[in-house]
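Hey Z.,

So I finally got round to the oxa(dethia)-CoA thing we talked about over coffee. Here's the setup:
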Amino acid sequence: MYNSKITGLGYFVPDNIVTNDDLKQWMETSDEWIQERTGIKERRWIDPATKETTSTMAAKAAKIAIKRAGLTKDDIDFIVFATLSPDMYFPGGGVRIQDMLEMPTIGALDVRNQCSGFIYSLSVADQFIKTGMYKNILVIGSENHSGGLERSTRGRNVTVIFGDGAGAAVLSRCEQDGKGILSSHLHSEGKHAKELALEGPSTGRWVPEILAENDPDDVSYYPYMNGQFVFKHAVVRFSEAIVEGLKANGLEKKDINMLIPHQANLRIAQFIQRKFELSDDQVYNNIMKYGNTTAASVIIALTEAWEKGKIHEGDLVILAAFGSGFTWGSVVIRW
Ligand code: UT7
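And the result:
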């Protein structure tokens, strides 16, 4: 059996900055409310004139990651792509990235696990490398939220939180023992699927049905979130996933060098930081400037932390996420 380790990292966010005050043109809200409840100061939203999409952002992030891995597109054996906002209902975005990067006809797998998407994707890629099937896998998370948010006071509890962006990692075969991904831990609890969901259009809520009903209050094509319910579950499941990762490797909280939590809400990350008695240098947050970028959030944060020199050879790095599904999980890495 082989190990897998991250050999390249990259991210891309649109240039267009939307501050909390900018949001007031569409809804009743305030910088004070958003910062106090979420920690967010601004987010990036695609400027439609740029024609940027979930896949184009993903391809840009991927190019950086491949270059930093010292590889070319032809060295990549497989793509695992996580998003909840694909360019098209089908096919998924993985194939579009394969085409945009002019890669050979390698396989492209789409992962639908929302905020935990990158954790799930990394775990899947790790298994393919462990078995020896593939040597270099491109693992990507990308989201275009701004294209599908309700820009009105009715949608404000969701709309102010989400931002656009993409992150990518190259996961490569590693023959050193105790290096790279040590373990991954994946969970779900589908009975809470509707607490954070976008129900239509789907085969359960198809477009003609929505149009026929002509109900102005039917906004099932916008994301819905039961914020406080999600928050309460998030703090518990985040903690569980981290503890599970530590235990599986015979480690303790004092062994953590860097925790990269999914950027759902700064208050959730701060709660986890206190619980695990971590210093500010041991947790990386960037929700202040990007908002919640769902499947892209963990990988953008990991890339930034690495770029800033906050992750060193031999560090114990834990990635953890929780979100719609509910799904949650962690990945434990010896850098
Ligand atoms: O990434 C996936 C996982 N997601 C999460 O983990 C998110 C978890 N949940 C949260 O982060 C928080 O629940 C939110 C930030 C979404 C909301 O914060 P909250 O403290 O739970 O607020 P709330 O939804 O209970 O709303 C409190 C009040 C309401 O007004 P009333 O009924 O008390 O008069 C809302 O209408 O705040 C109002 N409100 C707003 N006011 C200004 C809701 N959104 C806004 C807004 N600006 N954007």
